[in-house]
Amino acid sequence: MNLDRFDLQILEVLQAEGRISNQDLADRIGLSPSPCLRRVKALEEAGYIVGYRTILDAKKLGLSLMALIHISMDQHTPERFAHFEAEIAQVPQVLECLLITGQSADYQLKVVVPDMDGFHHLLLNRITRIEGVTGVHSSFILRRVVDKTSLPVA
Questions:
Q1: Which residues are 127's β-sheet partners?
Q2: pLDDT tens readout for residues 91-141
Q3: Cα Rg for the chain, rounded, in angstroms?
Q4: Which residues form the HTH asnC-type domain (predicted)?
Q5: Of the candidates 22, 121, 146, 154, which lies 20 to 30 Å from 115 by C-alpha distance?
Q6: d(C-alpha 36, C-alpha 42), whole Å
Q7: Residue 107, strand partner residues
Q8: 38: helix, coil or strand?
Q9: Pick the CATH number of 5-45 from 1.20.1250.20, 1.10.1040.10, 3.10.129.10, 1.10.10.10
Q10: CATH top-level class for 59-140?
Q11: How far apart are CA 123 and CA 31, in angstroms?
């Protein structure tokens, strides 16, 4: 699928306003509603749009501590990585898990918890108990300087 300026505009607007009506989206990008809806459906079917989400305020939900955790594994085998990834995917406090290079760690996790006690519990009772985890290094997020989910499409 070759993306034209209308497709790129649709992607840009939907990233910022996922709940916009088709009529408003069509008006915004200069198309009539039917072709606009067809384009959105085509972008979804082609995999450019993979889902729609609501972003919640963590602090209002009592989740005021966010941390980055670097994880080192004992073995670098596909089986060990697959086991870790399956286990960590079941931990609701983990917002992001990245397999990384260039560090002494194998994974970087972004986690959110209510407080330091919650972090302590998560670390000692869940993360370090996953088979193969041999090293953990934590950093606490003081402030989000840039915090966006939209990708540059233009």
A1: none
A2: 999 999 999 998 899 999 999 999 999 999 999 999 999 999 999 999 999
A3: 20
A4: 3-64
A5: 146
A6: 10
A7: 71, 99
A8: helix
A9: 1.10.10.10
A10: alpha beta
A11: 51
**Mean pLDDT along residues 27-48:** 98
Token pair listed for 85? 């990834």
Query: Is 123:138 a contact under the CB 8 Å cutoff?
Result: yes
pLDDT digits (tens, 9 = 90+) for 9-27: 999 999 999 999 999 999 9
Rounded to two decimals, the pTM is 0.88
State the distance between the two ends of the chain, measured CA to CA, in whole angstroms: 16
Cross-strand partners of 111: 67, 94
Burial 9-39 (b: 16+ CB within 10 A, else e): bbbbebeeeeeeeeeebbeebebeeeebeeb
Other beta carbons less than 10 A from residue 109's beta carbon: 22
Q: Around Cβ 86, how many Cβ atoms within 10 Å?
A: 10
| Distance (Å, whole) CA 134 – CA 105 | 10
